[in-house]
Amino acid sequence: MKFLLPLFSAAILAASVMPSHADDRYADRPPVMVSPDLSAPWVLQLGHAPGIVRQNRQAVQQQPRVRYAQPNRVQTAGVPAPAKRMVMRPQINPMYLPQEVAYDGKQKPGTIVIDTHQNFLFLIEKDGKARRYGVGTGKPGFEWSGTHKITNKREWPDWRPPTEMIKREAAKGRYLPTYLAGGIENPLGARALYLGTTEYRIHGTNQPWTIGGAVSSGCIRMRNEDVVDLYERVNVGTTVEVI
């Protein structure tokens, strides 16, 4: 009994010094401080166009790696820890961002002209002006030119690679699906404008850093933000001239 009393007194003293509340586990946690560098992979995907969504973490991790940022230190709940190495994409040249330009061509307003040498798409407007977008065009061996009409428009289109493409890529050890539903992982991106009866399209992309280069199998590739903007400005029947 003499030993129990000191233990009992010590327990009361500890309770008075360190009060415990049943709802302590629901208290607000300290904020997590995150380095601004962690937002870098999203920069090229952001936009104010309707229907554009951010990629999820899994989609970013599946993209090809280009280079890594130098590791920094981040503060997490007061405990310093090394930051994860984040994928950094090459920045798009500002000249390929949408802008109004002077245009003295012979095409009528409403016509789309695609310059595959300079990698620009022009939507001809009135009064000697045009709305210009940067595009990705056919890589060597896949260049083409001609005039077609837009015969169809689709939002978040499905992708069915042509048989020739599947065979060509398989010979390189890269196996394509025969069908891929529309979405952020789909190489056709957010919108597609189909050209005549060909297999060519003006479409978005899940690789916006390729805009401005000769990179496709003949299709005209645009940033998702830009193809959504163009999609809203043109209709089925619009003339598209590829030069």
Tell me about the largest β-sheet: 9 strands, mixed
- The CATH class label of the largest domain is Mainly Beta
**Could you report the average pLDDT, rounded to the nearest whole number?**
77
Helix content: 10-25%
Summarize, please:
16% of the residues lie in helices and 25% in strands. The protein has helices at residues 4-17, 57-62, 163-171, 224-233; strands at 67-68, 73-76, 79-82, 87-88, 99-102, 112-115, 120-124, 129-134, 137-138, 146-155, 191-195, 201-203, 214-216, 220-221, 239-242. It folds into two domains: 26-88, no CATH class; 94-242, L,D-transpeptidase catalytic domain-like.
What report would you give on this structure?
This protein is α+β, with helices and mostly antiparallel strands. The chain has helices spanning 4-17, 57-62, 163-171, 224-233, and strands spanning 67-68, 73-76, 79-82, 87-88, 99-102, 112-115, 120-124, 129-134, 137-138, 146-155, 191-195, 201-203, 214-216, 220-221, 239-242. The strands form four sheets. Strands 5-8-7-6-15-10-11-12-14 form a nine-stranded mixed β-sheet, covered by helices on one side. The protein has a two-stranded antiparallel ribbon with strand order 1-4. The chain has a two-stranded antiparallel sheet with strand order 2-3. The longest helix is centred in the N-terminal third of the chain and has 14 residues, at 4-17.
